[in-house]
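Same chain as my last thread, 569 residues:
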Amino acid sequence: GEPVAAPLPADLPPPPEVLEAIDYANLDAQPLHEPDPVQEDPWPFRVLGHDDGVYFYLPDSSQQIVSLTANDHKHLPFLRLAGANWWETHFPGREGADWKAAANALIQAGHREGIFAPRKVRGRGCWVDEAQVIFHAGDRLLIGNEERTIPSFKSKWIYTQGQRLEADQAEPISNVEAARLIALTDMMNWKEPIYSKFFAGWCVIAPICGVLGWRPHIWVNGPSGSGKTWVLNNILDPLVGRLALSVQSATTEAYIRQRLRSDALPVVFDEAESEDKRGQMRMQSILELARAASAETGGGIGKGSASGKAMEYQIRSCFAFASIGVAANQRADTSRITSLELRKDNTDGGQARFEQLKALWAETIARPGYAEGIRSRSLAYAMAITENARTFAKAVAIKLGDQRIGDQLGALLSGAFSLTSTRVLSLEDATAWVEKQNWTGFLPDEADQDEVRALAWMLDKSIRFEQDDRTYTRSIGELVQAYYSTTVTVDDADNIRSNLMRSGLKLEDDTVAISNHHPALRTLFENTSWADKWKDQFARVPGAVHLSGLRFGASTHRAVRIPKTAFLG
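reply #2:
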């Protein structure tokens, strides 16, 4: 028959319930495991992330970024992040700290944080963080009237420590007092009156360059005796010098870039001359750095290192150059660097006007607290200045017909306007203010175009000119004009035509053909921004056409044919 279960002994307790009652309605609320213990105290360093096998940290103690490879995650490198006692307490081992466990924890934390973004790093200078204007003074943060330590300020941005800046805690000066700065710069002998506002505006916005959407640069220039050095030493330097990176003459682009790192501080470059080839190359590199600093949306500057790792620099500075001449001649530079020319005042009343200037200077910038009050005013009204800069940019673009120039001059005008008012302007108000300014000599003209500048460069260059068994030196422009004049003889015209053909130019009835690769032109444009590219510039001249082949004496060249009116107008 079927098996019968053995009876349970009478002295055993009843069996326990195998299954407890389950609350299916609240199943999702029931924990599946014990929660991880809450970290009692935060780590004394911030895990920033990783990139290409390198892990980045920001210690509370140094507040400077520490980068460690996976192999660097061991005893001594870890002491850069925290003291030995901390490691022994949080990662205890048999003898001191368990460094392997610590390495595993940090590397996994770096992976969770994700890829490290250098653009999130903020050094010294003025910044906007969650609608707050913050001044990073190197070892502390100034937020309004409050002073905070860097580790105590929680942000998605990474603020790193730098050399301490003696930031101002002065009260912003009044509209009436601030406007006297405009009156002071108006007394300088500028080539154009509006240069006064551009200069004063730059001095206002340079200390807050980190918050600007467009960072304009200026180039103060003029002959010896025009007052250039006096302006720099007695106006610009007191207003921004304490915050600026000040360099001169033979300074290189690499030095400026490596000194700035992630700072948003102005750069003042005195004696920015480039008399020889080496100086021209050095200045061109610095101009490229300034060009990259202009737009907030611009890409970072990438540089390779000796270790094979790529390094990125994000330059956010307003530059002020000063010299007798201006080395910026490319359109990409002239639209970002405003030339402010000073002239010598040789009139009878020149000395008396200079004495009046010094008297007003003594009542303003030379007075204790005045320059500090201007800087505090810029910081206090930084948001209004940046908003007005965008509005002025639109108004200037309407006036001058160029948005790039609008961005450049709009920021400068916003700084100048802030010396008279702290209100936010409408486009209508900004347009009316722009219309009141004297734009003489600043309206756009074709001379700013690269193709016109390249053509002018060529016409101004002198060549050896042979005539009647004698050799002369004549500019190409003089020879072209003589050829097309109504008084030239047939023999002289033939001689001019032969001489210019040896220089890569072929004079025709109504046009001039320019070789694309003639050795004489290659020498002529050497060390200029048009080296090996002159054909591209000349092709932009109205009426220009490309020629696949044209005889220049005994050889055939590709060329660009330009109407003769481009040479004679």
